[in-house]
Amino acid sequence: MKKIKFISLMFVFVLLSCHNSEKSLSTKYKWPTSTPEAQELDPEKLKSLVQAIRDDKTYPDVDSLLIIRNGFLVLEEYFHGYDAETLHMVQSVTKSFISALVGIAIDKGFIKDANQKILGFFPDLDSIKNLDERKRSIKIQDLLTMRSGTDFYEREFGSPNFELNRLATGWDIFYLDRPMISDPGTGFRYDTGGSVLLSAILKKVNGMHADAFAEKYLFSHLDISKTFWIKNSEGYPHAGGGLHLLPRDMAKLGQLYLQNGVWQGEQIIPVQWIEESFKPHVIFRVPEDHPYKGYGYYWWILKLDPKDETKGYIYTALGLWGQFIFVIPEYDMVVVVNSDARGANEGHPITFLYTYVLPSVQDQDINK
After folding, report:
1. Can you say whether residue 80 is alpha, beta or left, with left for phi > 0 and alpha for psi between -120 and 50 degrees?
2. Which percentage of the chain shows pLDDT scores above 90?
3. How far apart are CA 229 and CA 137, in angstroms?
4. Strands 333-339 and 300-303: what pairing?
5. How many whole angstroms separate alpha carbon 264 and alpha carbon 266?
């Protein structure tokens, strides 16, 4: 692999028979606020970034920017008519939420562990196509790390991802029937179908669709007030990119992972799952000064300093068209960006993270 694209996934939601629903939950949690100065961030650098976004030339198409430092919301800006109460598509950031749900399901005993083989959850499907020993050996971990070994791929018109998104039913069967092209756990190949299958597995093991499971075991604990999840006609939420959230609620997932799965004194996600999610199960073969390090359980891993890997890492939930949750443990920081960007503009949040946000930290110096 010579080059890692910032965004490598497209969702074409043309499901004429899908059911879209918006759920509201009572919310009590309010982010504590502070100033950048009080949390040792350079306010002038952040003001310059906001102005660069607002001029709509340097960083066009950014819709929201939030920064949490030391648990305080220190910057919250919206653009292009968006505000704090506007739901935004999160695209493949959805996958990072699905990873959290799988960790919770394991902790609750619904799933044994990440090494459990996926076909064991579908014993009634004796007519699975292209069945061989490779397919029989696919594990949950292989789906979480994009190493299933199937031929599933993204982007192009007519791709398996495009075809799946056109189906009103049978997303799980469509994925289970895919031909195998490599041994599971060997090669990284971006794969939305695997996250969709994990949604079906969650339904198999606990009787609830992933959206209901999320509301019971995750969203309600985080006081997430609004959700909107695209579904097919069978009621399956699209686990690869169908979730819409408020930016503040996206930040809650980042803060939850930053706090090792603890929210207001309650262990929501096991710390062991956070550690496994942030572990580079996949190492990318890129130039030494490239920001990307690898891939965990539906989390991208970036270097805090691309030139010096010893400085630490940035754990990133990433979605098409410029959706990001950056979790930066060394700086006790979470950064959320929503965009409606295309092409090269999709990677702009990574650019200004390194050129504005990280250099604004005054009590640490990544340039040493």
Report:
1. left
2. 87
3. 31
4. unpaired
5. 6
Amino acid at 362: Q
Domains and their CATH numbers in the chain: 20-360 (3.40.710.10)
Segment 209-230 shows an average pLDDT of 96
Residue-wise pLDDT for 59-106, tens only, equals: 999 999 999 999 999 999 999 999 999 999 999 999 999 999 999 999
Tell me if 356 sits within 8 A of 343, measured CB to CB. Answer: no
> 26 phi and psi, to 5 degrees?
-60, 140
What's the alpha-carbon Rg for the chain, to the nearest Å?
20
Q: Give the CA distances from residue 101 to residues 38, 40, 133, 296, 316, in Å, rounded to whole numbers and listed in that order.
A: 35, 34, 28, 15, 17
Candidates 125, 237, 190; CA nearest to 135 is: 125
Q: For the chain, give me the number of helices (H) and strands (E)?
A: 11, 14
Amino acid at 150: T
Look at residue 24 and tell me whether its pLDDT is greater than 80.
Answer: no
Average pLDDT of the residues in 321-338: 98
Q: Could you please report the per-residue DSSP string of 80-92?
A: TT--TT--EE-TT
Confidence tier at 365 by pLDDT (50, 70, 90): low
Which pair of structure tokens corresponds to residue 125? 């499907």
**143 in Cβ contact with 194 (< 8 Å):** yes
pTM (predicted TM-score): 0.93
Tokens of 301: 């891993």
How many Cα atoms within 13 Å fall on the side-chain side of residue 242? 27
Give yes or no for a contact between 366 and 311, defined as CB atoms under 8 angstroms apart.
yes
Contact 327, 254 (CB under 8 A): yes
